[in-house]
Structure formats: C-alpha cells, structure tokens
Amino acid sequence: MSGSTQHWTASRGRALRGTIRVPGDKSVSHRAVMLGALAEGTTRITGFLEGEDTRATARVFEQLGVRIETPSASERIVHGVGLHGLRPSASALDCGNAGTGMRLLAGVLAGQRFDSTLVGDASLSKRPMRRVIDPLSRMGARIDATGDGVPPLHVHGGQPLHGIEYTLPVASAQVKSALLLAGLYAKGTTRVREPHPTRDYTERMLQAFGWPIRFGPGEAELEGGHVLRATDVAVPADFSSAAFFLVAASVIPGSRLTLERVGMNPRRTGLLAALRLMGADIREENAGEQGGEPVADLRVSYAPLHGAVVPESLVPDMIDEFPALFVAAACATGTTTVSGAAELRVKESDRIATMAAGLRSLGVAIEETPDGAIILGGPLEGGRVDSHGDHRIAMSFAIAAQVAQAPVRIDDVANVATSFPGFVELASGVGFGLEPG
Ligand SMILES: O=C(O)C1=C[C@@H](OP(=O)(O)O)[C@@H](O)[C@H](O)C1
Ligand SMILES: C=C(OP(=O)(O)O)C(=O)O
Q: Which residues are annotated as active site (predicted)?
C-alpha cells in the first residue's frame, strides 16, 4: 500500500471557511471491531473509520472466522463469536500499516488455542514489537519475531496465560491494551501501570461490553474469565484528523472553520492546549457525549501564533499531532521547543527526522534533538518534500504549503488513506490548494 509513486501538489489556497466533519476515530474503530468480534451477540458500529488501518483489522477478524457486514459506508455489523470462538487462519494476518492493529492483535492471539502469523507493510515491518512481546511472554505467551524484534510475529497458541503486574517503560496505549486483551484470557489479575496516562479507549470499551475492569489515569486492572456482551458503538470523529484543520485554520489568515462532533477524550486533546499556549483561537461548543466519549464542535479562527515550550506532560496526549504542531511552530513567531517525545522516532516514520528534513527543504530553521526539536518560525519557501509513506507527515506538509511562497510537491502520500480517507476532497472543499499528482 506504500505508494511511493503517488504525490500531491499543494499551494496557497484561500482562507478556510465552512463546517466539516472528519472521519471516525481510528483507535475506537480498531477496538470496536476487536471487542465486537470477541463478544457474545451482534455489535453495530456507526461512524467506523473507512481507513486502510481499520479495514485491515476487520479483514483479520474475518480471516479468523468472524462475519462482519457493511450495510453502508462507515457502518459495520460484527457477529461476535465469543471469547473462544475465533478459528485459525491458514494464511498470515495482514495488519497493513497499523501499529495499533498488530500490537493489540498480539494480545488477543496470545490467548488462542491456535497459532497465528501477523505481518505488515514495509513501515510496520520496521516497528518495535519487543515492547509487547516481552510483557506478553511474562504472562506465559510465546511469540517469535525476527532477530531485531520486528514483524512478522508468530504467535503460538495453546499457551496458558496468567496475570502479571507490569509498569510500562514507555507511555503506550497500544502496549497497555495488548496486555489487557491478553488479560481477558489469563488466570488471575492483570495490572498495568503507565509512566504517564495514555488514551483509555480499551478500558472504557471493555466496560461498555460488560467486562469488570478498574481503571483510572495511568493504571488499569482486570481479571480473566468473564464474558464480553455485544453493544453498539457510535464512533466519534477523530481528534487526530481534526488536528490538521485546527493547525491550518490557525495559520492561514482569514480562516474560520467549524469541526463537528470531534472526540474530546482528554488523553487525546494535548494539541489544543499546546496551540492555545501559542496563541490559537479555538473554541469548544455544543459539548456532549457520543458512544460514552466526550465530543464537541471546535470553532477555530486564524490567530497569529508565537513560539512556546511544549510541556513534556502534554506529549502522550498529543503523540500523533507532532507533525502538525511542527508546522504550527514553523509558522509562529519565535522559537518552539519540543522535548520528551522520543517515541516519535518509532512511528510510521521517524517523525522527528522526517519533519526536520521536510521543513528544512522549505527553508525553516529546525534543530533535531534526540527526543524532539527546536523550531524557529519564519517564512516558508516552496519545494519538494518526502513523506516517507507517513500519512501524518503528508497531511502536515499540505498545511505548510498553504502558507508557503511557492508550490510544494509532497511525495509518497498514498498512506493518507490509512487514517484519513477523503482528506484531499475535504481539505480542498474548505479552501486548501491541494491536488493529487
Ligand atoms: O492505542 C492506540 O490506538 C494508539 C496509540 C498510540 O500509539 P502508542 O501506544 O505506540 O503510543 C498512537 O500513536 C496510535 O496512533 C494509536
Ligand atoms: C502512530 C500511528 O498509528 P499506528 O501506531 O497504529 O500505526 C498514527 O496513526 O499516527
């Protein structure tokens, strides 16, 4: 799916205006399919993200014997098979580009009676898996990876699991979730602690599916041996997709944009706090709830930004938003400092290096550090940047191009479909200058 041949030409458009709804939340969509598949009964998912990542997860469960219907776009009916009803797949399970898919599946598959092999695309095949293999092994799982601890993963079935107490060395909702999902199959209590609280969708959704679980910021614990009961899931709009428009409207003079019904889980909205520190004008309206998650309409208006020191405490709450934040920093007056974000180096690309290279080629002064960057805002030139197949990098440079002095060619953009299908159309519709090819 990594289409190095695909590129965009992005250039100054007009002030962004309008009201839009971005696609469904990726984290919630992955988990809704997983828990729906393992539940007793039928789960209806609405607002499902029609992205390559989440479709890959649905396909994997179909390979494992789960019937999933698509009555309409963004809707899925998952016919749950119960905790012990999955069937072995003769072929490898392809998670595509999705770290979330693979790491959470490792937890689910560790509890099965049969063996499975998890594979991914070129980018996923470079991402670290020891972070799930090590703690799952302590629970009794047997998982083989390549020598470097990267995919493919061979997950051995028939291994009795037992609960453990585990403190994560890095803040990762994926690792936490893998352990909790394995914990469904484990004897005794699985208790996970985090160095900084991360998104708690797995915990919230397990509770919604009727599994007894105790959790609070930075900790979660559950016992094996219960039952998941199907429940409908209404997926809110993805804050991480909304983020591109929050930054774009903040930096393009004259913009005024409303993003409807955006998921506002506090473990996701760190970018709001960071942008406000930089002087952004973003208002929350019509606060409500959807599928057990807080949602709000976000009204963002252009405002001149100034540099800031991004507090390290915000990092886990905006982990996927740094590429967009780097663009905001490049458009701001003065210096922005990011630290405590070494995890960015093991995402779909090394996001610190990829953003630094791209911004430099647009004339921005940026200094990389091991765990962040120091970015000096200033005028952006046109040029050519390489996304390295990373969806969030591609979309971030589409924003940068809106304020650049000449067009920007953005290479290797096909993976935008992993998290944000329809981005080009939606962005062009509100004023972006953005064209495929
Ligand atoms: O649990 C999840 O759904 C996710 C957790 C984060 O990854 P880490 O757990 O590696 O920080 C995030 O980057 C990813 O996009 C989605
Ligand atoms: C890091 C991301 O996703 P994943 O880890 O699921 O590939 C992301 O979407 O930015």
A: 320 (proton acceptor)
**How far is ligand 1, taken at its centre, from the CA of residue 174, in Å?**
5
288 and 332 housed in the same domain: yes
- The CB of 36 under 6 Å from ligand 2? The reply is no
ipTM, 2 dp: 0.99
Q: For 155-213, what is each residue's pLDDT tens digit?
A: 999 999 999 999 999 999 999 999 999 999 999 999 999 999 999 999 999 999 999 99
Query: 183 and 121 in one domain?
Result: yes
Catalytic residue annotation: 320
168 Cβ below 6 A of ligand 1: no
Where does a domain end: 199, 216, 234?
A: 234
Residue 360 lies inside a defined structural domain of this protein: yes
CA angle, 75 as apex, 37 and 103 as ends, to 5°?
45
Q: Is the CB of 54 under 6 A from ligand 1?
A: no
Residues 67 and 215 in one domain: yes
pLDDT given for residue 38 in this prediction: 99
CA 319 remoteness from chain centre: 9
Domain coverage including residue 120: 26-234
Residue 393 has pLDDT above 80, yes or no: yes
Ligand 2 center from residue 96 Cα (angstroms): 11
Select from 189, 207, 234 the last residue of a domain: 234
Query: Whole-model pTM?
Result: 0.98
Span 25-42, average pLDDT? 98
For residue 387, what is the domain's CATH number? 3.65.10.10
Q: Number of folded domains in the chain?
A: 2
Please tell me whether residues 72 and 191 are part of one structural domain: yes
Q: How far is the CA of 227 from the centre of ligand 1 (A)?
A: 26
- Asked whether residue 310 is assigned to any structural domain, the reply reads yes
**Helix pair angle (270-277, 322-331), 10° resolution:** 10
For residue 25, give the nearest of 238, 264, 202 by alpha carbon.
238
Instruction: Encode 122-149: b = buried (16+ Cβ within 10 Å), e = exposed.
Output: ebbeebbbebbbebbeebbbebebeeee
The tokens of 106 are what?
A: 């490792």
